[in-house]
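Translate sequence into structure tokens.
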Amino acid sequence: MHVALLHTEFGLVDDLTNALEAAGHQVRRYVDASALIHHAESEHFDLFLLEWNPRDARQILRELCLGPGLDSSVIFFNCHNSESELAYILGNGADDYIIGPVGVREVVARATAVMRRRGSGFGCRANVLEMPPYRFDISAKLLLMNGAPVTLTEKEFELAVFLFRNLGRTLTRGRLLEAVWGSSLLAVSRTVDTHISRIRRKLDLRPETGFRLSAVYGNGYRLERMVADGSLGLGATVSDSACPGGAVSIRLGRVSSTARAS
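Result follows.
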């Protein structure tokens, strides 16, 4: 895997680079975002591993997703615990984020998990999101299921895309409202629950078709990929309560007893 590493924290980056290279990855380091983007136009990277900078994180993500990073994965690390900012980057092309301060082993594990999902046939790009049997055309706001179009309202489409881009994560109603409707003030209504119900029905989200959309009581919802024997697929999240600020732990196994489809 070819990794572009954007960093400013020099104390961490040597250890991180060594760990990534020991795991078999080729790493190219940058301290300037414009240089990274410029080189990415002529050199392909599988993963952009970007240290969080609240001043320009959105702009970097936008430039990567509209240009050289279209077919690549993006992970932000050492992120601040800002729900609105993290919801934005996940909703606009990033594959994962890691709340700081961060450990080297966690970054390497997250990078490996993201690339493993891509290697299993999952692709996430700025304008196209493919998770068979689903294909989302972001620009056209079009969803195909097994090649056939699925009729969705604009908000249903945006909510479905956000759920698939956060596969395996528990998403609170407030976070879903912020990401899709731009506000958490609607939390007293059943807006999210109604749209979730419609998406589950229209996309036929059940274990038999490869995905399950579950209600996590007291928290929100979680979309999980299933495999043939009914267990969770690679990269699925069984528990995220141990990670502060919404960061999740990646595990393999069967469904937690705390979540079931509503």
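Note: Residues 127-260 form a domain with the Arc Repressor Mutant, subunit A fold (CATH 1.10.10.10).
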